């Protein structure tokens, strides 16, 4: 049995499915559990902090843990940093067989902080049975000191352990998502898997092929291939992912309109056709010829108007903005300031200065899932807000597969993950 604590919507589980193996996930969130069920993943809906370890004793070969990151994430208040000494104390006590979580929880600024100590409760109980054979854990970079504490304890129990920061883009994920990783094994030397990608492609050498270039958003979404042109944009949410001007379901997203666009890879540009003819729009977007408000706005030709699209990670001043021919920044969701939106800028030499750029367009859940390396048809459950939250909290399956494959004696091939929709 492979036990997956805090299993979420199935990032680790989907990776194991690709590798031909199944796990048992423990998860509390209702909609993440429904997504897992729709994906055919075994799940126990429970509070991980309360569920007993006893049913897994003598049966567990691998343990996976990705505790909730909200207390530590840059997207939140990061009270986990303040609570970190208490979490270290809980880990030390649990490793010694003392459960002081109740007392320590009363002093935590964020009750979720202590969830990062939960894997040690399971590991201590399983260790008495000489299990598990291997461990894989993932969290935001600020949790690395805690993983190092885990590593010191696991080494006294006979594990080889590696801890460090990995960049998901180095493993073919179209996202420069940096995460703190712990890998441990009783049977092999623990070490990170060799990166398969680099910021710049590497040439072939006497030692074999070089690493491929990082996967871009355009590649992952299928917007760069000759038969998959970048989309025409017709409409979408207001600036910063604001209210949609059209009724729900009628918004023309980048994916929905892609077949009417033209891809120019050198400039990352698209043809834009406006269909916004509702009241007030024509006045705001009249051209320098002073076109009357009641005259439909014309089609923008590919020669005259080109746009360079980028993904903005949130609405904050320090938001990461990446052009579509690069990987995305770290995707995170949870409240309105963290919405990711597509923004357009004029490509050099291709835009009439008086022609307004399209408004920003909120990324779709399917696009977010693809950039997290879930398949296009992954059965997300819940409304948009719940799906976005699941996507942002999930481990990218492609990264997870690279981390797990050595423990399972598996080899990944380039065809194991199809990125484009």
Helix content: 10-25%
CATH architecture verdict of the largest domain: 3-Layer(aba) Sandwich
**SSE sequence, one letter per element:** EHEHEEHHHEHEEEEHEHEEEEHHH
Largest sheet, strands/sense/barrel = 7 strands, mixed
- Determine the number of helices (DSSP H or I, runs of at least 4 residues): 11
Rounded to the nearest angstrom, the radius of gyration is 24 Å
What's the CATH superfamily of the largest domain, by name?
A: Vaccinia Virus protein VP39
Largest sheet strand order: 3-2-1-4-5-7-6
Q: CATH fold name of the largest domain, please?
A: Rossmann fold
**Overall body shape:** globular
Active site: 69
GO molecular function, one term: methyltransferase activity
Protein name: DNA (cytosine-5-)-methyltransferase
Organism: Streptomyces silvisoli
Describe this structure in words.
The chain has a seven-stranded mixed β-sheet, sandwiched between helices. Strands 10, 11, 12, 13 and 14 form a five-stranded antiparallel β-sheet that branches. Strands 8-9 form a two-stranded parallel sheet. The protein is built from eleven helices and 14 strands. It is globular and about 65 Å long. The longest helix has 17 residues, at 79-95. The chain has helices at 11-18, 30-38, 79-95, 101-105, 118-127, 144-156, 217-221, 281-284, 365-371, 384-393, 397-408, and strands spanning 2-5, 24-27, 42-45, 62-65, 134-139, 160-167, 178-185, 197-198, 212-213, 269-270, 307-312, 321-323, 341-346, 361-362. It folds into two domains: 2-200 and 396-416, Rossmann fold; 216-326 and 332-371, no CATH class. Its EC number is 2.1.1.37.
């Amino acid at each position: 049995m492979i036990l997956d604590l805090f299993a979420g919507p199935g990032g680790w589980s989907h990776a194991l499915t690709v590798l031909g193996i199944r796990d048992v996930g423990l998860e509390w969130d209702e909609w993440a559990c429904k997504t897992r069920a729709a994906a055919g993943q075994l799940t126990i809906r429970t509070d991980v902090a309360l569920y007993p370890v006893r049913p897994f004793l003598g049966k567990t070969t691998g343990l996976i843990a990705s505790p909730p990151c909200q207390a530590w994430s840059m997207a939140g208040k990061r009270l986990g940093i303040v609570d970190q000494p208490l979490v270290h104390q809980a880990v030390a006590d649990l490793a010694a067989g003392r459960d002081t979580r109740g007392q320590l929880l009363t002093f935590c600024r964020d009750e979720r902080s202590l969830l990062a100590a939960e894997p040690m409760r399971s590991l201590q109980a399983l260790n008495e049975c000489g299990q598990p054979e291997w461990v894989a854990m993932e969290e935001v970079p600020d949790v690395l000191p805690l993983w190092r504490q885990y590593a010191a304890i696991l080494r006294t129990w006979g594990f080889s352990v590696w801890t460090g920061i990995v960049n998901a883009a180095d493993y073919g994920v179209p996202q420069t998502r940096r995460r703190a990783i712990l890998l441990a094994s009783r049977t092999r030397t623990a070490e990170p898997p060799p990166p398969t990608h680099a910021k710049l492609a590497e040439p072939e050498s006497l030692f074999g092929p070089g690493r491929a270039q990082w996967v871009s958003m355009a590649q992952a979404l299928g917007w760069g291939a000759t038969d998959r042109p970048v989309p025409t944009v017709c409409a979408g949410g207001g600036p910063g992912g604001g209210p949609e001007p059209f009724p729900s379901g009628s918004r023309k997203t980048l994916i929905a309109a892609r077949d009417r666009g033209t891809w120019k890879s050198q400039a990352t540009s698209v043809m834009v056709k406006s269909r916004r003819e509702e009241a007030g729009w024509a006045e705001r977007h009249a051209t320098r010829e002073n076109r009357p408000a009641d005259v439909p706005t014309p089609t923008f030709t590919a020669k005259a108007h080109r746009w360079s699209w980028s993904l903005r990670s949130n609405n904050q001043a320090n938001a990461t903005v990446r052009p579509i021919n690069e990987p995305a920044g770290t995707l995170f969701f949870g409240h309105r300031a963290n919405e990711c939106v597509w923004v357009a800028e004029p490509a050099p030499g291709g835009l009439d200065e008086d022609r307004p750029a399209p408004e920003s367009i909120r990324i779709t859940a399917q696009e977010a899932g693809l950039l997290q390396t879930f398949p296009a048809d992954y059965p997300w459950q819940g409304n948009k807000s719940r799906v976005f939250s699941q996507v942002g909290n999930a481990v990218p399956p492609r990264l997870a597969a690279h981390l797990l494959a050595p423990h399972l004696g598996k080899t990944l091939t380039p065809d194991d993950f199809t990125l484009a929709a």
